[in-house]
Design a protein that fits this description.
The chain is of the alpha+beta class and 309 residues long. The chain contains 13 helices and 14 strands.
């Protein structure tokens, strides 16, 4: 059960920092999609907060600015907007795909991109996609009665499992992402039920072509390491190379050492490699993906048979 004495809803960063500088012992919330189930289901025991500060209405956290090269998304942007907005569906194609897997409609209406990233879960769906968008985040702090904003790459903001670069009462304000109009995109994760499962492995990829060659390739993975990460060996191998199934297969093997899980390592390696292949092929708009992966599997089996002869 969740109880509190006071519930505050500041409308600007100035109001927020003035409030939190005076009101002590407060819990910062946005969509509450993690905290409410935690309290309701008794996992947190009898939960009581003296003061709750809801940041979801803060103007600066709800910014939405579109540019030809950069796009600014406020940290309070919910996943339903990522799923439905026409501009996002055109220029940030990977984000609606994340939203489909992320949750059902009710949760998407509440869950914010900032909350998902601040949780810093190794299995979080949002971070791999935002990594492939070369995201920079803005953090606001309050010092000497002044609001100070600091911009940093997303990979610097998330420091480890459930660890981010926020001091007490600091706020994650916005996400600056690259406009990827013209890129193919794909996001997939292992799960028995779409949108209702914690990721075992999830992969995000973006691909841009120049005639019959890879001009740009971005692949990020989550669920298999403490912090979701870009697969730089895979990316660098493919850039400038021809669009060839064998090139994709070779690239898919280069970053499998990112897996840090102690359990089911071979299973995760196999799943991760297949997902890398699938995500790149889907980003290319290929449709016969299962057949292509089966060809790769057949080649592996033939090599293993030859090795035993």
């Amino acid at each position: 059960m969740l109880r509190y004495d006071n519930y505050f809803i500041p409308k600007t960063l100035k109001e927020y920092f003035e409030l939190t500088s005076k009101v002590k012992d407060c819990r910062i919330v946005a969509g509450c999609t993690d905290m409410l189930p935690w309290a309701r289901e008794g996992r947190g025991g009898d939960v009581f907060f003296k003061n709750v500060v809801d940041v979801s209405r803060i103007k600066e956290l709800n910014v939405f600015k579109f540019g030809s090269k950069k796009i600014l998304l406020g940290a309070a942007t919910n996943y339903q907007k990522l799923f439905l907005d026409k501009k996002i569906r055109k220029s940030l194609k990977v984000l609606p795909q994340v939203s489909v897997w992320f949750a059902d409609d009710q949760i998407r209406e509440l869950a914010t991109i900032g909350g998902n990233i601040v949780n810093a879960s190794p299995a979080g769906d949002g971070m791999p996609a935002f990594l492939t968008l070369n995201t920079k985040v803005t953090v606001a702090s309050f010092k000497n009665k002044k609001i100070i904003k600091l911009k940093m790459p997303l990979e610097k903001f998330v420091k480890g499992r459930n660890k981010v670069a926020l001091n007490k009462n600091d706020l994650l304000v916005d996400f600056e992402v690259e406009n990827t109009d013209g890129y193919g995109a794909c996001f997939e994760k292992v799960g028995h039920r779409r949108s209702l499962v914690i990721s075992t492995v999830c992969v995000s990829s973006l691909v841009k072509l120049n005639k019959n060659k890879f001009q740009d390739v971005r692949v990020a993975v989550g669920g298999v390491c403490e912090v979701p990460t870009r697969l730089t060996k895979t990316e660098n191998f493919l850039k400038g190379k021809s669009i060839d199934e064998n090139n994709i297969y070779v690239a898919s093997k280069l970053d499998l050492d990112v897996i840090q899980s102690r359990s089911r390592r071979e299973y995760r390696r196999e799943v991760l490699q297949n997902f890398i292949i699938r995500s790149i092929l889907k980003s290319l708009g290929k449709t016969n993906i299962n057949e292509t992966i089966q060809k790769f599997d057949n080649k592996i089996e033939l090599k293993m048979e030859d090795a035993h002869v």
